[in-house]
Amino acid sequence: ASVSEPAQKCCTENIQPFLTSILEELMGPISSGFTEVRSLFDKEVNEIIQDFQKTNDITRLKENVDQLMTLPFNSVKMEPCYLKVNLLQELLQDLKSRFKVYHIDFVIQRTQNFMQELMENAVYTFEQLFSPSCQADSAKVATTIEKVKLRVLK
Predict the structure, then answer these.
(1) Distance of CA 110 to the CA centre of its chain
(2) How much is the pLDDT for 90?
(3) Which of 36, 51, 52, 122 is the most exposed place for a label (fewest CB within 10 A)?
(4) How much is the pTM?
């Protein structure tokens, strides 16, 4: 009871007025990282479509889809996504001194984990939606891949 009133006053005066601006600052790099994940998925699926249109090879298509499933674990390809979030390091330094925010690396690592999880979900959903169509008419496969990609991105 004796701590409640001073703690509420402290939060109301020293933290609450800054929350909106802090969240806006943090969301810039986070949004940018997730946008990069989306772009990477889009680019990889477009490459699968282009390769299939050139080769018209169903076996190679299946190999490319299998390779897409490893995308979330491909640190080289995911690196540009992760780098976007590393900008949080600089932003959080200011918060660390002003609000005693510690474990900055943990915040960045968790965000990167969520990005990897999002990519895992995207490629899994893609595979699940596309698999039944793999045996379809090869003339329609590229169109089907595009439709599935758009559905996943939605």
Answers:
(1) 12
(2) 78
(3) 51
(4) 0.82
| DSSP code, position 2 | T
Q: Looking at this protein, which amino acid is placed at residue 127?
A: E
Closest CA to 117 of 32, 24, 33: 33
pLDDT, one tens digit per residue, over 38-62 is: 999 999 999 999 999 999 888 999 9
Per-residue burial over 5-25, b = 16 or more CB atoms within 10 Å of its CB, e = otherwise: eeeeeeeeeeeeeeeeebeee
Return the domain boundaries, the chain: 29-153
In angstroms, rounded to a whole number, what is the distance separating the alpha carbons of residues 29 and 81? 10
CB neighbours of residue 124 within 10 Å: 13
Look-up of token digits 């590229």: 142
Beta-carbon contacts of residue 63 (< 8 Å; ≥ 6 apart): none
> Mean pLDDT across the stretch 94-98?
71
Secondary structure element (H or E) that encloses residue 118, with its range: helix 104-130
> For residue 2, which phi and psi values (nearest 5 degrees)?
-75, -20
Q: Read off the pLDDT of residues 25-41 as tens digits, 9 standing for 90 and up.
A: 788 889 999 999 999 99
